[in-house]
TrEMBL record, chain A:
<comment type="similarity">
    <text>Belongs to the intradiol ring-cleavage dioxygenase family.</text>
</comment>
<dbReference type="GO" id="GO:0018578">
    <property type="term" value="F:protocatechuate 3,4-dioxygenase activity"/>
</dbReference>
<protein>
    <submittedName>
        <fullName>Protocatechuate 3,4-dioxygenase subunit beta</fullName>
        <ecNumber>1.13.11.3</ecNumber>
    </submittedName>
</protein>
<dbReference type="InterPro" id="IPR012785">
    <property type="entry name" value="Protocat_dOase_b"/>
</dbReference>
<dbReference type="GO" id="GO:0019619">
    <property type="term" value="P:3,4-dihydroxybenzoate catabolic process"/>
</dbReference>
<dbReference type="InterPro" id="IPR050770">
    <property type="entry name" value="Intradiol_RC_Dioxygenase"/>
</dbReference>
<keyword id="KW-0560">Oxidoreductase</keyword>
<dbReference type="InterPro" id="IPR000627">
    <property type="entry name" value="Intradiol_dOase_C"/>
</dbReference>
<dbReference type="InterPro" id="IPR024756">
    <property type="entry name" value="PCDO_beta_N"/>
</dbReference>
TrEMBL record, chain B:
<dbReference type="GO" id="GO:0005506">
    <property type="term" value="F:iron ion binding"/>
</dbReference>
<dbReference type="InterPro" id="IPR015889">
    <property type="entry name" value="Intradiol_dOase_core"/>
</dbReference>
<dbReference type="GO" id="GO:0016702">
    <property type="term" value="F:oxidoreductase activity, acting on single donors with incorporation of molecular oxygen, incorporation of two atoms of oxygen"/>
</dbReference>
<keyword id="KW-0223">Dioxygenase</keyword>
<dbReference type="InterPro" id="IPR050770">
    <property type="entry name" value="Intradiol_RC_Dioxygenase"/>
</dbReference>
<protein>
    <submittedName>
        <fullName>Protocatechuate 3,4-dioxygenase subunit alpha</fullName>
    </submittedName>
</protein>
<keyword id="KW-0560">Oxidoreductase</keyword>
């Protein structure tokens, strides 16, 4: 087996399985210690996705579900880079995303929040990073929405992301937040991340990619697990 | 650089990650047919439930499977089957990298801030399973949680998040 192995999850920044303030973790968090295994071809070879998996409007959520007009809300453009822990860009990697509409309502049938659906907004898309690991997509800024975790619980504005990177070891599902959101300090999902990792989930307003008279710009970089060449047994 | 922290997939992943399965108007990246069962006479069905610490079936989990030998990948949510199972149509992989045939399995759900990795091994591969380096890294009394029993159409693999039968999850 290769001695080039992927770093494990960095527990200094990654959330734990069990975070009792996020109530759903209580019956769903594994309780026994994880079994450490040596990475093999199963962990190091894929899956890999490419251009053929991304449709022409997948990167533009303001256009990819129009029926009779434009979606309502504040248009934004989000850009950034996907890198590994060594700062190396990850080119041609797939990013999937989904989010609530500007009123804080998900299209999902289970979402019963009494806020309007937008007939011209589905809230899901895909984008591939370019040769330099960069990506960009357009959407509508998602609204906050209430949830049942505790009395008067509201999720901060956020966009969900799913990334693959080179193989299943680098798989990442996460959420991007917005700068200055007053709900972050009350959000048990955000607060389950160790303090050192929290800022990494907050995007930055970026005037340089803000498009005049069109869309506010936000920057958000992703850092996936990187490799190291130390033999696994010696770590 | 520090890794981007993980956050939960949440309860509303379906229209983003498994849209066709849940009948949303968006093309799915992948589905649960790793092979088309009509074209493949040796296709098998893998199905199971994801079960919480009180023995309740979880209806909003998302399971991904990866067969590195055949380079097949699938994804399925537990919210559409009448029994809330995940179901995959695939072929049984052969040995890879000196290991017994297996599928890599990734588990996502509301209530998991970070996903879980496990593996599915096959009950009719006793000889190879006994020699498998990963199975042997698992305490013997927990090994059975990774070995899917054969049934009429394939294999059944239930994933227990907690409890006496808690599935073995890996640090991969």
């Amino acid at each position: 087996m290769s001695d080039l192995t992927y770093n494990l999850f960095d527990r200094k920044v990654q959330p734990p399985y069990l975070a009792p303030d996020y109530k759903s973790t209580v019956l769903r968090a594994p309780t026994k210690p994880l079994v450490v295994i040596k990475q093999s071809l199963s962990e190091l070879t894929g899956p890999v996705f490419g251009e053929m998996h991304v449709g022409p409007l997948d990167h533009d959520l303001t256009k990819n579900a129009r029926i009779n007009g434009e979606p309502l809300g504040e248009r934004i453009v989000v850009h950034g880079k996907v890198m590994d822990e060594n700062g190396r860009p990850i080119p041609h990697t797939l990013i999937e995303l989904w989010q609530a509409n500007s009123a804080g309502r998900y299209v999902h049938k289970v979402d019963q929040h009494d806020a309007p659906l937008d007939p011209n907004f589905l809230g899901t898309g895909r984008v591939l990073t370019d040769a330099d690991g960069k990506y960009k997509f357009y959407t509508i800024k998602p609204g906050a929405y209430p949830w049942g975790n505790h009395y008067n619980a509201w999720r901060p504005n956020h966009i969900h992301f799913s990334l693959f990177g080179p193989n299943i070891s680098t798989r990442l599902v996460t959420q991007m937040y917005f700068p200055g959101d007053p709900l972050l300090q009350y959000d048990p999902l955000f607060l389950a991340v160790p303090p050192k990792g929290r800022d990494l989930l907050v995007s930055q307003f970026d005037l340089s990619i803000t498009e005049p008279s069109f869309a506010l710009g936000y920057r958000f970089d992703f850092v996936l697990r990187g490799t190291h060449s130390t033999p696994f047994e010696n770590r | 650089m520090l890794q981007t922290p993980s956050q939960t997939v949440g309860p509303y992943f379906a229209y983003g990650l498994t849209p066709e399965q849940y009948l949303y108007d968006f093309k799915s990246l992948v589905g649960n047919q790793l092979v088309n069962p009509i074209d493949q006479p040796d296709a098998i069905t893998i199905s199971g439930n994801v079960i919480d610490g009180q023995g309740q079936v979880i209806t909003d989990a998302m399971i991904e499977v990866w067969d590195a030998q055949n380079k097949l990948f699938g994804r399925f949510g537990t919210g559409t089957d009448p029994k809330s199972r995940f179901i995959f149509h695939t072929i049984k992989p052969g040995s890879i990298d000196g290991q017994a045939p297996h599928l890599s399995v990734i588990v996502f759900m509301r209530g998991q801030l970070i996903h879980s990795y496990t593996r599915l091994y096959f009950s009719d591969e006793d000889e190879l399973n006994e020699k498998d380096v990963v199975l042997n890294a698992v305490p013997q009394e927990r090994r059975q949680t990774l070995i899917a029993p054969k049934n009429a159409t394939g294999y059944e693999f239930n994933i227990y998040m907690q409890g006496e039968q808690e599935t073995v999850f890996f640090e991969v």
